[in-house]
Amino acid sequence: MDRINLKEQLGRYRTPYEEESSFIQDFLELTEDPLAYGRERLDGHFTASAWIVNRKRTHTLLTLHRKLGRWLQLGGHADGNEDLLEVAMKEANEESGLKSLEFVDKTIFDLDKHIIPERPHVPEHFHFDVRYILEADLYEPLIKSDESISLAWVAFDSVQDVIGYNPSILRMLDKTSKSEILL
């Protein structure tokens, strides 16, 4: 999926979740900026994530992010790649070591615009995260990357206990339980 396809998908994207709906236009506008796919765009840029679930839809794979110190879905920076579908798969594979990863659907699963705190040499900025849903074998061995403190399959009914309150992850969890594409 390149910039044109992303813009088309964003134009068709609808969500019943008010917060998510409120920033679709921001994502659409960002597609017009050729610098939006690189982290050099300091006020905000695209990232891509993978919401990974097992085939029976009972668990999701989460990482305890080293820099942020929070449990999150796997994903990362586009680093100039305008194919965010490809970025999501690459990041999921690099951060988990899973070879069984497959897209459940190649359309956008979720969108989230969130602030990244300032760090040395990096100002506070926004991530415009485009998320896709993937599935993998729950029993395949995991290989943790340097970006993670930990990596774990978390049962759906334990996600909130593990992550605390993170509305975007809870939204993806809710979508997973309601989605017809997952059956």
Automatic annotation (TrEMBL):
Q: Which Pfam families match?
A: NUDIX (PF00293)
InterPro entries from the UniProt entry: NUDIX_hydrolase-like_dom_sf, NUDIX_hydrolase_dom
* Residue ranges occupied by any Nudix hydrolase domain in the UniProt entry: 43-178
Q: Which PROSITE patterns match?
A: NUDIX
Q: What is this protein called?
A: 8-oxo-dGTP pyrophosphatase MutT, NUDIX family
